[in-house]
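Recap quiz, item 2
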Amino acid sequence: MQLEIRERTSGDVAILDLIGKITIGEGSVQLRDAVSKLLEAGRNRIVLNLGGVTYVDSSGIGELVSRYTTTKNTGGRLKLLNLPKKIKDLLMITKLLTVFEIYEDEQAALDSFQ
Amino acid sequence: MMLAENVVELTIASQLEFIDLVTTLTDNLTHMVGFDEESAYWINMAVRESVANAVEHGNKYDPQKSVDIRFTIGVDALRVTVRDYGEGFDPSTLPDPLDPNNLLNPAGRGILYMRTFMDSVEYERHPDGGMIVSMSKRRLPKAAQEAGEGEHKHDAVRN
């Protein structure tokens, strides 16, 4: 499996710990399915913890953007936590760093929903 | 026969599963050539993007069409060409992913990443059909690499 996704909950916020690769094909699809499942259950306050992600390609970046937009369209919020430097670089190159809400501290990410 | 340049060629079917095979080979070659870890990572990504584009947009996953990858280890640079057998396209007509209206598009960033991480990226139509993308990355003298004097186009994103 390219990407392992572990789900946790803190109050009404869903935290997805992502471990592995978010690349074209399996990894991107797994992320899409995991976020869709949360939204279908009415859970639209989401934190993606990317601390365990080892590789992201343009398809993975596109998937992050799609999940951000889809969540926002439901009136919810999707925030990013623990971005590895190379993912930060990829977001910066494509001017996406300011689009996402990005946190390095989980509690700060959770508090931001209040 | 002595070759001035070492050439490694690989042909894969139009399946995403084979992309990792190509990037594993890429990692071996960049290590062999002596690229630093940072450059090797981004070369890997540029190759991944070009092969993924060939499979997805070029050959449209047609199992009858292959993707041909050729690595040329030159004295001055590593060159990579990736050929598909699709209908071809004009890269100048692609939407600019940095246009504020396109920032939230789910796709269209791959070529920008390739152009950022490689020293040159050129697209041309193959006379027999399909597209060829040719990319190169300069090899720096080892001493310059160790002294951190190398010019990297993506230095701007390191801070």
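Chain B touches chain A through 25 residues (CB under 8 Å).
The CA atoms of residues 86 and 141 of chain B lie 38 Å apart.
End of item.
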